[in-house]
Design goal:
This protein folds into 2 domains: about 240 residues, Aspartate Aminotransferase, domain 2, CATH 3.40.640.10; about 100 residues, Aspartate Aminotransferase, domain 1. About 35% of the residues lie in helices and about 15% in strands. The chain has 10 helices and 14 strands. The strands form 4 sheets. Strands 2-10-9-8-5-3-4 form a 7-stranded mixed β-sheet, with helices on both faces. Strands 11-12-14 form a 3-stranded antiparallel β-sheet. A two-stranded parallel ribbon has the order 1-13. A hairpin with a 4-residue loop joins strand 6 and strand 7. Helix 1 packs across helix 7, helix 2 packs across helix 7 and helix 8 runs parallel beside helix 10. The chain is globular, with a radius of gyration of 21 Å.
């Protein structure tokens, strides 16, 4: 079974940049040339003009509505990807000789720890490398400090296909990298002090980062920092301390509108559970032909990492899938195997087609 449509788009299983909602892309086609009847495209408008004022104000408002974000949080749009956040977080909050708790659940948390250690003291409160990152820890597996500056963790690990089902419990401020599952499910804001997400998986194009941060955290940012590395300075200027990534913010705003049109985060989560469930069912029902990397209790709804019996069969699966209009299935170089990323905008029909393909491939080989 292959998916066909009038736009000749194939199924994009890439981990990021990833699939965007087709209605968003269709609207962007119009607005690139002439947004809102202004006679000028979105990429050409001044970030100080009334048209972009409306764009960014709508994006902030719709983000707050989508996520049910309380007033005590600021919504910021930054640049530099999640990787810059690894350093910025430590620069703003790892102060006065304090130590921060970090949970290492994969490649990106390992990188965040390395960046933070350049700035201050890091306490490794969980080391997932000991089990090859095959699950996300429960609270009893954590070694937390009582007086940590903050706890940092990643809610969903794209490479190993794992996610947290609950927020780790701590008395310290909680900072979470949600790059690969932001707005894939409702968020309990009482559990967080800051979340951030690179846009290119679930929110929009690469080049823009969404940061949602408690206002009391902003009070901790030292004035000695360069302005663009200071969350408080960026917040005071409404994310326009310098020329912001105008197209990225615009497109993210359109994605927020799409989520609302789809029924909000409760509906999105229901779709995601259904979509991933079809694929996991296919993988589990083929008599051991496939191996899923993550433990069942930690299986991600966004990134499904698995393998067949041999690298040769993995390669053949990628080849046959490609011939059926399915792209982006090669696993990350750090893990190998195969990976299907099925973010919010990935169509349910695509998951059904891929599930059928997996069962057929197993039967034939």
């Amino acid at each position: 079974m292959a998916i066909s449509n009038t736009t000749n788009r194939i199924l994009n299983f890439s981990a990021g940049p990833a699939t965007l909602p087709e209605p968003v892309l269709q609207q962007a086609q119009v607005d690139l040339l002439n947004i809102g009847g202004s006679g000028i495209g979105i990429c050409e408008h001044s970030h100080r003009g009334p048209v972009f004022d409306q764009v960014i104000n709508d994006a902030v408002a719709n983000c707050r509505t989508v996520g049910n974000v309380p007033d005590e949080f600021e919504i910021l749009f930054l640049q530099g990807g999640a990787t810059l956040q690894f350093a910025m977080i430590a620069m703003n909050f790892l102060l006065d000789g304090k130590s921060a708790d970090y949970l290492d659940t994969g490649v990106w948390t390992t990188k965040s720890i390395a960046e933070a250690r350049k700035i201050g003291n890091v306490h490794l409160a969980y080391d997932g490398s000991l089990t090859n990152y095959d699950h996300c820890p429960v609270d009893t597996e954590l070694d937390l400090h009582e007086d940590a500056a903050y706890l940092h963790y990643c809610s969903n690990n794209t490479i190993y296909g794992t996610h947290f089902t609950a927020v780790p419990k701590t008395d310290s401020p909680v900072i979470c990298d949600m790059s690969s599952d932001m707005f894939s499910r409702p968020i309990d804001w009482s559990s967080f002090d800051m979340v951030y997400a690179g846009a290119q998986k679930n929110l929009g194009p690469s080049g823009v980062v969404l940061v949602i941060i408690r206002k009391t955290m902003l009070e901790k940012c030292p004035d000695s920092l360069p302005l663009l590395l200071n969350y408080n300075a960026v917040a005071k200027k409404g994310s326009m301390l310098n020329t912001p990534p105008t197209f990225g913010i615009y497109l993210m705003g359109e994605v927020f509108k799409w989520i609302l049109a789809e029924g909000g985060l409760q509906a999105i989560e229901k779709h995601n559970v259904h979509k991933a469930g079809m694929i996991y069912h296919a993988l589990d029902s083929c008599d051991g032909f496939y191996t899923v990397f993550s433990q069942k209790q930690s299986r991600s709804l966004m990134n499904i990492s698995f393998k067949t019996h041999t690298p040769e069969l993995d390669a053949l699966l990628i080849e046959e899938a490609s011939s059926r209009g399915m792209s982006g299935l090669k696993g990350h170089r750090n893990l190998g195997g195969l990976r299907a990323s099925v973010y919010n905008a990935f169509p349910v029909e695509g998951c059904a087609a891929f599930s059928e393909f997996l069962q057929t491939f197993a039967a034939n080989h």
